Amino acid sequence: FAQITAEESEDELPSREERGDARLREQDAAEGNNKGAVTEEAEGNGQRNGEEAEQPDQTPMLSNKPRKKKKKRKTKKPSAGETLEDNDLEDIDSLLEKIEDTNGLSQQTQSGLIVDSRPLLYIEHRNLNPENELKRYFGARAVLGDQRQRQRQCVRGTWLTTPQSTWPRYTRTGIVMQLVDTKGGVQYFTFEHHRKYQEVQLKFLENVETMDPNSVVPLLQALEPYHVDSLLLLSDVCRMQEDQEMARELVEQALYSLECSFHPLFSLTSGTCRLDYRRPENRSFFLALFKHLMLLEKRGCPRTALEFCKLILSLDPENDPLCVLLLIDFLSLRAREYTFLTRMFQEVESHRNLSQLPNFAFSVPLAYFFLSQQEERSELELSQAREKAARLIQLALIMFPSVLMPLLDHCSVQPDARVASHSFFGLNAQISQPPALNQLTSLYVGRTHSLWKDPAVMAWLEPNVHEVLRLVDARDPLVEESEHKRKTLYQNAPRNIYRHIILSEVKEAMAALPLEVTSQPVMGYDPLPPLDSIVSYTRPERTNHPSNESTLSLFCSSLPGRSSSALLQGDIRHERDEEAGAGQDLNQGVNRLMAAMRDMLANIQFQEPPRDDNPEGDGDWD
Fold it and tell me: Which domains are assigned to the chain?
């Protein structure tokens, strides 16, 4: 046995004692059978018994055992090939999932529905990688099949994105992160632009004034291939042209550039690192994260998008400059993280009044309903979830009656005669609500109506709607109190809500934006900047365009040549002269304009500058 274990230590990785003993017993049994078969064929039954009796004194037989075992291992190794790597990846993922599931169940079954010792906004690095979520859906072999041939020229490890071999070689971009202050265990950081990067940024702002996206491309080709605002702007252009893959890659390059400039003390998972959105240098990181999570959600990775949403909220949880609180409930439901959503509501409701937001008022009871449908929970937990779901959905319907009819309309559900004819849920409920509340309800219905289409959800919603009508007819004091809150609380929406609606691009909410927001120019790289911005270096003032020109005409006039603007102006003149055919001509003009835009985007190419002799060096390009 001493010789056998010595051979194992030379060729195999160390393992636990229990596994080693089991393997030895199996090998001894197999080798004993093989030895008996060989001696029976060679010497007969009598000689076989004699050899078995003399076996303890024969050392050559012991020396042959490890050679047989070693030969077997050599034949197994090349037969595994690349399949071994895939199996290892799948085994690691399955082990991690089992560990996470086991911890979650043990914490939940101790006391009630929601028990978790980790912080609310705790972020796991592995949940920031969409490939891990896709591997759970399709398997590691399908997701990582093309990555074995990838050349890893970007050797620096990152958590937010995975650099690709087709990207330009990364060098110092001129963006650095500095530690500003530390208070009460919270660290405040900020991005800073060096002089070289400031020059590129000022040049970018000048080119943006031309309203021509093609003028931004030379900045990436010649000056700075990792200029963050240029990448974000071109990503929006590609997304409007329905090139989701290119849009996603441009946003990932921007995130990669920013992550490479992180301060050594900046942590994505601690939840104690802050960034001030009032500084323009920090806004790019917020916007890149938001655009990335929106693309992830459309890609079918809601769990990864939820992790990025938590990351944005942890950077400034008090101010929430992008108002991700209006989005985190939807991502939680899409990712089936019902426990997280209910826990967040319980912990944050006391000081943030989340129940006053329509999205939390309706999504939290929906999460409790889904929890009540999970058979693996105890009967006590299921009954508690059903009671909370019924109570909260009734409060939501009383507080926000204008949500029900548009929600049923989006779900293609016809209400019964009692609900349709009752004035509480009628058209008056939508007309009488303040504009700010109309924006919130329109945003929620337009974004999450697909989650309510489940027949089981509608069957649960119907009796609660009738119970609310019974309370209304009985003149319950809660109904009058809720009406008073609607008229007094939702007068003016804060600026971060407008910013969130613009970035989300939900058409129902965009149509409800006030005129003071839609009448001013909105730039995709910095939508609705804060009024109290902290400017670190001077930026050129934007040229004031005449107010009688539309955004489309200004953009057309900035395109090369005169054909696009003349075409649009000609269509407008034609509309004034001939009203009957103006709409058709205008549509043709816009179609030709979009065709020209597609040709322009097709000519955008990212050329990598010549590299230095030293591929590992990080100096500037020549």
Answer: 121-140+160-320 (1.25.40), 323-533 (no CATH)
